[in-house]
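Deviations from the work plan: none for this task. Representative record:
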Amino acid sequence: MRKERPASQRYRFILSLFLACASTIALPAKGFTQPQQTSAKEELLALPGEIGHSGGRLVISLRAEPKTLNPLTAADSPSREVIGAMQSDLVHINRATQLTEPALAKSWKISADGLQYTLTLRKGLRFSDGHPLDADDVLFSFRVYLDENVHATQRDQLIVGGQPITVRKVDAQTLVFQFAKPDGVEERLFDGFAILPRHLLEKPYQEGKLGQLWTPSTPPNEWAGLGPFRLKEYVAGQKLVLERNPYYWKSDTKGNRLPYLDELVFLFVPSADAQVLRFQSGETDMITRLGAENFSVLGRQQHGYTMSDAGPGLEYNFLFFNLNNLGEKSSADLTQKQKWFHNVKFRQAVSTSVDRDAIVRLVYQGRGAALWGPVTPGNRRWVNTAIPHPSRSLDHARVLLKEAGFSWSTSSNGDSILIDPDGKPVEFSILTSSSNADRIKMATLIQDDLKQLGMHAQVVPLEFRSLIDRVTQTKDYDACLLGLASFDADPNSDLNVWLSSGGTHLWNPSQPHPATPWEAEIDRVMEQQLSTPGYDQRKKLYDRVQEILAENQPMIFLASPDILVGAKNSMANFRPAVLEPYVLWNVEQLYFRTGAENSIR
Amino acid sequence: MTQRRKLTNWLVVLLVLHGIIVAAGFFAPYDPAEQDRERPYLPPMHLHVMDAEGHLHLRPFFYPLRLQEGSFDQYEEDMASAVPLRLFTRGAAYHLLGLIPSRLHLFGAAGARIYLLGTDAYGRDQLSRILYGGQVSLLAGLLGAGVTFLLGALIGMAAGYFGGWRDDLLMRVAELFLALPWLYLLFALRAFLPLAVSPLEAFLLVVVVIGMVGWARPARLVRGVVLSVKERDFVRAARGFGASDIYLLRQHIFPETASVLLTQAAILVPQFVLAEMTLSFLGLGVPEPMSSWGNLLATLQQYSVLVSYWWMYLPAFAIVPFFLGYLGLASALQQHASPYKIEEKNSWNPS
């Protein structure tokens, strides 16, 4: 069954794995059609919220240049953030409520057997270049997403029950999606599938050039989307300027067409500290992905801006041991260490000895949540609140270690040393990414926690790429401290982490068969929830997965940082969410208050 | 003789400074790796002699700091309990010179912990870390200088004395060493080493690297001195009497280069300490939880630390007295060496 549905690609490492960016291939230029007046035929979506006024220019930093503007190949988070403001999907997940909402499709119907989804498009919508949208564009988009030669990053999600879904056009506004098996994700599936302009892309698609299309330097008239903003200007190494899409399909409750802002500017500011300085000096209007330290620096000297803590996000940090079955490749030293790592009592003892409160306090300055499972409190719909939160206990850890056959001796300088059943002292190294100060700090705290059990752990900060290489390829390491951020609140976004065949099943990736009974059970339950429709049933199954993980501790979950953001006081409708994109998810509603409105506040 | 006096003064100053670092265990109130997780980024405490009511105390005291409600790093003095400073207290165990076990500390306090220079992100005593960190940094500097001068003296003398193609070869190699992009090579070298290097291995790596990089300059200097010395009358005379190369180098030429080498050493030791600090700053030095001046300063790479906690800069100032001491010694040595050399020459060559 696992073979039938390749695991979802919708996961990512915190530091994105960058894709190489191919050069532009020029398209025959097409003239811009001028924006037209709102016609009565258009079915706009009216958004509730503060009524704003048009105009203004929002500047925000991006920590790297987007590699591409092509939704088919975007894998890095800067690209996704930019594309999010430029494209639209059929059904959208509201980042604040974490529930689905109608988008380009004004309604959808799921057949009783869960195999047929009927979507109805809004009437009268136009792409940002004025070209009308119809069902053929949707058909074309999904044909492209499903085409193996295009290598769309989202393709795996469209293979349900081993077969690609099929899309059928009923009329210009109605489409039917046919599934081979019921999909547990239901209509959330459609989030993230941008509808592409067939009139611009069909020719390059037939020529097989689609993958290389739409780099940031694409001329604006060769680009079109359905999002609130459209491409205006790109200055390599500096900025990407987007302008208001005059054909956008949302309005406020008074009927004013959104977005309010005239321009959205992404500045490329690679270092977090430089982003802080730019925000402090007023050069940027918003800041996101802040660390706790910079957040408190900004909070201490607020001039005209407000900082806000949106609560724990979806990022979970954890420590894991090398549980790979290396066979003959393994060194004698590692084989000895793996005897401890494979012992669940050893892992439980390490987990019990970790001072999670200290991690939250010292690493996140209290702006985070301690974790005992992979689902953070920020993921309200899926977190299993029944998982026990045992407090730190060195005594309990010692009991567990004793049960596992470990003992203690005293070294020459008076420190106690943990000795394994074979008489070897317990020593191992903890890898962590050298570019992430938070994780180095966590590892240093754990090192000190473990020292009190007589374990000698050494922290080894390593460049991120070689770290990933060690963990997933050469498998030459003892323990590693990493973090993952689910892309979506849905459990399926972490499928690749929990399935034993997954490439991100970090402690023992890409297994041909589950190595342990509990991994087999996780596989079974995860597969089951995949095809179980209905939230309640799936929640029960995913709760079970969380329980198994908490029991067996293949990952020792540590903490989750809060989503920390800031915006100028004049920014209205600013409602940060814990799902990406944290501040720009409602970019169409953002506007600047005028001076008078500001002083009233 | 005033110059001799000056030399002794500088030597005493340096001896005292090094003594403090060598006996870090005694001068540091706490173990440098001990974390006080309730007190991260605690600012340096103030010692008082006057209490809130205006009474004078003979024994200095301090008020323990407590975290302000709801804050992460803002502390206030707890005026309710004054804790007196005690001298020669018993505390964390340490080994003096790595040999003599002891628990005696210069100062400490009962019932509360005293942080005269504040604490770092983990609540570790900054003063203790600076003192212990000095052991690593200074030893690396001294050993690095030792390696450099051994190599520099040998290669420089060989090149200068034998001349010809050997001179050319050695000097071109020296130039190559000067031109190499060392920092990048070092990062590459680190990638080849096993993942977890023990503190000792990391330390030796730093020493070897510093020593290897540094030898070229002193080698050139020594070569220059040897070139001129080997043409001197007393050397020619000795050679005329059939002295071997080794004998000449050892008895006549090396003593002539000694003063140059010593002066160079005094200038280069602090520079090598600085080199160690640079390497550690970049994460190539001893691993946590050990401290060295360089990795203490590494936290300043974060903007938030830079603007929020001024006492994290203090390790940078630790090297200043050492720098002054060594430079003073170097100038005293130089002044001392010049007349000395003439006198000695006269006694060697009484013609």
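Residues 1-37 of chain A have pLDDT under 50 and may be disordered.
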